[in-house]
What we know:
13% strand; six-stranded mixed beta sheet; binds beta-D-galactopyranose; globular; alpha/beta; four-stranded mixed beta sheet
Amino acid sequence: MKKRIMVGLLVALMATTMIFAQGAAEAKAESNTLEIFSWWTAGGEADGLEAMYNEFDRQYPGIEIINATVAGGAGTNAKAVLATRMQGGNPPDSFQVHAGHELIDTWVVSGFMEPITFVLEDAGYMDKFPADVIDIISYEGEVYSIPVNIHRSNVMWYSPKLFAQFNLQPPKTMADFFRVAEVFKANGIPALALGDNEIWAATHLLESVILAHTGPDKYNALWEGKVKWNDAQVRSALNDFAKMMGYINRDHAALANMDAAGYVAEGKAAMNVMGDWAAGYYYSQGFEQGEDWDWVPTPGTSGNFIMLSDSFGLPKNAPNRDNVIKWLTLCASQEGQDAFNPIKGSIPARIDGDRSKYDRYLNAAMDDFASDAIVPSVAHGAAISEPWLTRINDIMSVFVTDLDVDKAITEFQAAADRYAPK
Ligand code: GAL
């Protein structure tokens, strides 16, 4: 296997400088490389990406992949580096981007991307994706990215050992949650692991708590700006969120999201709400479902699936356009998706994934995706634009410590007034 070139932030910045120094003409010359930009550095996700690279190597030996990663969950740091590169005329060949508002509002409407409907059409894949998924990667009738997966946001990971020890059942409702949380707290065990050293993890939790109170229709209406934040159900969600903060681990503000998921598998905390990249993390660490971890939909959200999708597109002026088209075709293929997702902890965006390659958890996620009410994730770019999400994350940074519900409602409403679609 070829040696993979690993580049981090520093090298990417150096490359930027060099390319400018060499002049645009030279930068645009096609080479036998393919630079793929993502934030997949953690256990599970880095391995899944590597599996897809290996499949690419197999199909296109001779093209060298440059693995340009910028660490930080949910793209905390990567998105800023990407913006600098795109605005500086130095796009990576292809980059990880969330399907939905993040893709369309940030990159497509502003004219940075090439339409790539032809990639799906040429490969005969147009009908291999659900219509709703095609919809969120499309703008004015053209497809702008290839979704490699579907992740679920509203998952509660729990420790079967701790629940058995105290003879408790995993919570189905918010009331159940507070009942079991009390028992853990009384026994000196953090009921809920939170790893919000990057604040998006708190926003991630919040979207599930809102859905639990509003149900899917009002949840959607809230993100469309049609429901006010002082709505009684939204307010009770914020009240519950504030109450939940009474049951979290002391070190939450210093802890990364994957480590919080790890706390559950290590028996250091009873529950954690995180997307199913946590499953990918568990696989990578050798933690076993049923033994070290298990899952339920987040309390009050059974029958609903908060979805997000990672996708890759073709920036205008991508240095190696032909190689990108090969990459995108692989991303859209069954082999590509079935190499990546069983390791990543996500389900294929395609409808024809080979279920035998996926574990028990992912098979259940596929069943739920096929039958649940699907709503878009806020914390991961599907439901709202990036400026709105950035503002929500800022509000959350304060709310997780001051727990001032009235103030949060006022601020969330002001953000909605400013950023919600008119
Ligand atoms: C999400 C992304 C996932 C995973 C997660 C944690 O935004 O869609 O694939 O990377 O962040 O970093």
